[in-house]
TrEMBL record:
Family: Belongs to the glycosyl hydrolase 13 family.
Hydrolase found in the keyword field: yes
Source organism: Suillus placidus
Domain Glycosyl hydrolase family 13 catalytic: residue ranges: 16-439
Record GO biological process: maltose catabolic process; sucrose catabolic process
UniProt GO molecular function: alpha-amylase activity; glucan 1,4-alpha-maltotriohydrolase activity; oligo-1,6-glucosidase activity; sucrose alpha-glucosidase activity
Name under which the protein is recorded: Glycoside hydrolase family 13 protein
Key words, A-Z: Glycosidase, Hydrolase, Maltose metabolism
Length: 584
């Protein structure tokens, strides 16, 4: 019996572009579609199969485009619909696909749907958003409930014209759509059809697991007694109707096309809930971005703060998801960077001058040897790292950083009864964890602003661009870029790395993450030293014999080295071996 071929998106390498910071072709300081078009050969050469564009729709950029005021037009900073068509054609001609960011939990408050909704209680679009009267407590009017917005403060904004409040789980310029209204859902299907008709190959769906809110919008339990507003994700993450709505999306739109779909699903690590979005028999999405690994170093107060993580925690998380419901068809999205997180080499590797390149390459091996669809974030292929601690708060543009900074500052000012309060500890945390680190402009060459723009960049370029840039790395076989290119080829050449099972070895080892992957008659062995300092690994018991294993990839100059029963891995060393079954 022959097995059906795997769908194309399983073996794809997806490259995420943050358009504002990719390449500015017209010198206005912001990246644009023409800049992306100019780099299509760069992407193809790297080994990219699918380009995912963070939002480029018309937007007031309250949250860098995750606040859309027109779903069917391109923001003029980025170009025009015709530029988008040219980008699509350029990608398709090179055998690459183009995936759009679908941000439909909320719109911008400047979207025509919202301006209509806000205009009067009787407007036909009133019910497209979530409006409620305030609640009066002891003669004082409060928002309808105590939900805290993800970006601080109340999740409700009072509109003086009608005296009612609208829900915004993010900033007040991002009102949440009312998905319980079937007309809203139809409007979303129409947006999707618009882009599919134009030729897009799939969607990354922004916070798609929060579109259905619990009936009655009950108050959240008190967990933080420093403030009135409380985290409320138990009432909006994986809400009561979410699977019904996504199934409807599948029936109405997705099932008619061969698309790649990935849902962003934060606020939950609940495996059975996450599985429900992905299992093929449910007919919802191809895969989700869950955040169990990304949350590993975040305390509950805020992802902008840092808590220490251990390798055993990381192994447990990755091991669980790599093995999770494979027989039922669950499929992973493998990523360690995106526009919402600090740079991976600064979080999971070692970004010091001595270890930066080596540890960035080790992390590349970590990613390309996992089962799932692979995602690479712009600049990751160059080993870009966080910007320095010496940069002040004025360099942090992100609304999440700004709002959190202001909140803590106000709290301290109040508590200490003075204006001038010490904030350097928060800057220490931001230097490690802020989203801003992923948003600095791409470093293309050693010219001013890293060759990103001939104008003034919307965000400062990291200081290391004269040395750390694409041009320099492309010509250097030992560079992080050259390594990523090789690593992506190795992955494509070995189906076992994409589809194989996952067996964790040496589970208790505190320094090394080791595993085998098996697919048909092929096995792969992966050894990753996540720490500085040598690590001894004894493979005798772990895999039985070492005969037949051929070296295929490593981040030190060690081509051609065989596998022995006792291996000493150097600092941050990673190696991959593959063994084809011996035919008797
Ligand atoms: C997603 C996006 C993030 C944005 C948020 C609100 O998490 O990735 O950048 O701020 O949704 O749209």
């Amino acid at each position: 019996m022959s097995t059906p071929p795997h769908p194309w998106w399983k073996s794809a390498t997806v490259y995420q572009i943050y358009p504002a910071s990719f390449l500015d072709a017209n010198g206005d300081g912001t990246g644009d579609l023409a800049g992306i078009i100019a780099k299509l050969d760069y992407l193809k050469d790297l080994g990219v199969d699918v380009i995912w564009l963070s939002p480029i729709y018309r937007s007031p950029l309250a949250d860098m485009g995750y606040d859309i005021s027109d779903y069917e037009d391109i923001d003029s900073r980025y170009g025009t619909l015709e530029d988008w068509d040219r980008l699509l054609e350029g990608a398709h001609t090179r055998g690459m696909k183009l995936m759009m960011d679908l941000v439909v939990n909320h719109t911008s408050d400047e979207h025509a749907w919202f301006t209509a909704s806000k205009s009067s209680k009787n407007d036909p679009r009133r019910d497209w958003y979530i409006w409620r009267p305030g609640k009066v407590v002891d003669g004082e009017e409060l928002p309808p409930n105590n939900w805290k917005s993800v970006f601080q403060g109340s999740a409700w904004e009072r509109d003086p014209a009608t005296g009612e409040y609208y829900l915004h789980l993010y900033v007040s310029k991002q009102p949440d759509l009312n998905w319980d209204n079937p007309v809203v859902r139809s409007a979303v299907w129409d947006v999707m059809r618009f882009w599919v008709r134009r030729g897009c190959d799939g969607f990354r769906m922004d916070v798609i697991n929060i579109i259905s809110k619990t009936d009655g919008l009950p108050d959240a339990p008190l967990v933080d007694n420093t403030q009135y507003y409380q985290p409320a994700s138990m009432y909006f993450a994986n809400g009561p109707q979410v699977h019904r709505y996504i199934k409807q999306m599948h029936t109405e739109v997705l099932s008619h096309h061969d698309l790649i779909t990935v849902g962003e699903t934060p606020f939950t690590h609940e495996a059975s809930e996450l599985a429900a979005y992905v299992l093929p028999q449910n007919r919802e999405l191809n895969m989700v971005f869950h955040f169990e690994l990304m949350d590993i170093d975040s305390p509950s107060e805020s992802p902008l703060l840092r808590k220490p993580w251990t390798l055993s925690e990381l192994k447990a998380i990755v091991g669980r998801w790599q093995r999770f419901m494979r027989d039922d068809g669950f499929w992973n999205a493998v990523f360690i960077e995106n526009h919402d997180h600090a740079r991976s080499v600064s979080r999971f590797g070692n970004d010091s001058a001595q270890w930066r390149a080596i540890s960035a390459k080790m992390l590349a091996i970590f990613e390309i040897t996992q089962t799932g669809t692979l995602y690479v974030y712009q600049g990751q292929e160059l080993g870009l790292k966080n910007f320095p601690r010496t940069w002040g708060i004025e360099e942090y543009n992100d609304v999440a950083s700004q709002n959190y900074w202001n909140l803590i500052k106000e709290q301290r000012q109040k508590a200490q009864g003075k204006e001038d309060v010490e904030m350097s500890d928060l800057l220490d945390s931001f230097a490690l964890k802020a989203r801003d680190h992923a948003r600095t402009p791409m470093q293309w060459n050693a010219s001013a602003h890293g060759g990103f723009t001939t104008g003034t960049p919307w965000m400062r370029v990291n200081d290391d661009y004269p040395e750390w840039n694409a041009e320099r790395q492309i010509g250097d076989e030992m560079s992080v870029h050259a390594f990523w290119k090789r690593a992506l080829k190795v992955r494509k050449a070995h189906d076992v790395l994409i589809y194989g099972d996952f067996v964790m070895l040496l589970e208790a080892h505190e320094q090394v993450f080791a595993y085998t992957r098996n697919y048909g008659s092929t096995s792969a062995l992966v050894l990753l030293n996540f720490k500085q300092g040598k690590a001894e690994v004894d493979l005798r018991e772990a895999i039985g014999g070492v005969t037949g294993y051929a070296f295929v990839l490593g981040n030190y100059e060690n081509e051609g080295i065989g596998l022995e029963e006792k291996v000493t891995l150097r600092d941050y060393e990673g190696r991959v071996y593959v063994r084809e079954a011996l035919l008797n």
